[in-house]
Structures are given as structure tokens and as C-alpha cells.
Amino acid sequence: MKESLNYFKIPRAKWREYYEKNIVPLTLEELERIKSLNDRISMKDVQEIYMPLVYYLEMQLNVQRFKQEQTARFLDKPMTNVPFVIGIAGSVAVGKSTTARLLKILLKEAFPGKKVQLITTDGFLYPNAKLKELGILERKGFPESYDMEELITFMDKVKNGEKASAPVYSHQVYDIIPNRYDIVDNPNILIVEGINVLQLPSNQRIYVSDYFDFSIYVDAHEKDIKKWYLERFEMLLDGAFNDPHNYYYSLAQSGKRDEAFEIAKETWRKVNHVNLRDYILPTKNRADLIIEKGHDHIINELLLRKY
Ligand SMILES: Nc1ncnc2c1ncn2[C@@H]1O[C@H](COP(=O)(O)OP(=O)(O)OP(=O)(O)O)[C@@H](O)[C@H]1O
Ligand SMILES: CC(C)(CO)[C@@H](O)C(=O)NCCC(=O)O
Fold it and tell me: Which residues lie below 8 Å from residue 181, measured CB to CB, with a gap of 6+?
């Protein structure tokens, strides 16, 4: 194992040994069920990367529980459930939601008695109308485009065991869906996924990550991420063809695919690339675990924080 700065650098071949040593393998039926729920992830990654990760997370859950027990005993107060929060950060289109959805499935499978929920911070973006009013529509995804105060209030409620609601963003509509909320109600584990989860909001005193018990940064080469962004754009465009409510409807109807791809490339260059370089990548070294993906989405290296 090669060590670098404050991380253990663990190649895939080494990481997967932690699976063999410590974990009861998933049955074929369980693997098939996971595959049908999340067909974007290779089953090899599930076995060799995610199962050891679930095992490691179980240890972290036990540590968190032990600390709470100690505090409750010290204060002579009853133990309450404090949700274990996992943050997942990384570039636009790097695969955060895909990773988060898989982790949710695996955690549910591993801990059938535990309530596992997932939200994305996309819901805390200001609606397009508000972004326009602020003159920052072309800065969607940048720190100032999120209502960080709302996000912090949400996290505060979650950690205190209160019912909390997260607004919902749609990539298809390209906006917040009015009056739609994801309700988070005192789960044992909450996964919070978003480009901004490791950022320090400029006008706040606390990080969102102050509420995290474990954080993951999904990383890849930018040229690969750009390719995945364009592939996802193609899927959004194709899916828009028969749906007038879709943001990409008129673009899809126009049949001008080349022009559409030029717009997407320009958006990457002017918006998502700049956001990655200036605001997302600098947060990488705050994560407890960095997952390095190759051009085919396969994970080839993991960096685990030493301290
Ligand atoms: N492990 C994987 N295998 C194959 N395809 C993947 C994998 N992970 C992600 N993808 C594809 O890459 C694209 C981006 O993934 P995803 O939507 O999960 O990214 P994201 O980081 O959540 O993006 P955003 O921040 O914009 O919501 C999607 O088209 C997705 O299907
Ligand atoms: C919603 C975000 C910010 C993050 O998921 C992103 O997907 C996005 O829409 N960025 C704005 C630039 C673009 O249209 O790609």
C-alpha cells in the first residue's frame, strides 16, 4: 500500500482483498436484484469496491453509535437516534447520483432493520426565476446559486431527529418542481449527494459537511467527465422528443442535433468546467474517501483518509 499525504492510497487489487477477508459474499439472487435496480454499475465494482466500502461504513456506524452512547451516559440522558449522514461530492456528471443510489440499495441490503434515505442538494438550487432575478442563471451550480441557509436548516433538522423536507430539482424540466418535496423522517442513515456538499458557503458560519459522519468524493479525469456529460445530454435530448414540458423539447423537435451538441459543449466549457476547477475540485481533499474512476466508469483506486 502506497501512502500519500494524509491518505492511504489503495489500488483496486488491494481494496478488493478486504472483501474476501471480511465479508459474506452476496448471493447470485441478491446481485441480480441490485443489477435490475441499478444497471449503470458493473457487478464487479459492486463485489470488489462497494461491498468492502459497506463493511467499512458499518464500522464507522458503530463508532458513531459508541460516541453517542458515551455522551448520553455522561449527560445522564436517554439515547436518541442521530442519523448517520454520508456526503457524496464531485463534478457535475461524474456519477454521484448513480453511486449514491447504489450505496442506498447496498446499505438497505446489508442492514435490513435500518431506514436509509437519499437526497440531492440539487433541490436547494434557487428556482430559475430567482436565478434570473439575481442575474446568475448561467451560474447554476456555483456556490451562490444554492440556498445554503435552507440546506443548513434542513441538515440541522435531520440531525435533531425532526421531519425535514427537501425541494426537488428535475434535470428534464431544468428547474425546481414547485410544491414537490422529498421528506426525510428520522432515518438511521441519510445519503446527501451534490456538487457543493464539501464547500464552505460564503455567507454562513458552518459547513454542510459539519453534519456528515463520512464523506466521499467521486473523481475522474475531466475529459472523461465531459464525455459522460455529453452522453447524458444526448439521453436528455432523446427523452425530450415527445414531452412538451421538457426543457430540451424544442431543441429535440428542431432536429438540429449538431447545434444542440455545440450548446452542450459550450455549457461544459463555460459553466461546469469552471465550476469544477474553481469550486468543486478544491474540496476533494476534505473527503474521507476519494474514489478514482477510469474512462469506463470502473473504479481503479481509492484514497482513504488517515486522520
Ligand atoms: N458506474 C457507471 N457506469 C455507467 N454509467 C455511469 C456510471 N455512473 C454514472 N454513469 C452515467 O454517467 C452520467 C452521469 O451520472 P450521474 O447522473 O450519476 O452524475 P451526477 O454526478 O449525479 O451528475 P449531476 O451532478 O449533474 O446530477 C449518467 O448518464 C450516468 O448514467
Ligand atoms: C443541476 C446541476 C447544477 C448539478 O447537478 C447541473 O446538472 C447543472 O444543471 N448545471 C448547470 C449547467 C448545465 O446546464 O449543465
Answer: 165, 166, 167, 168
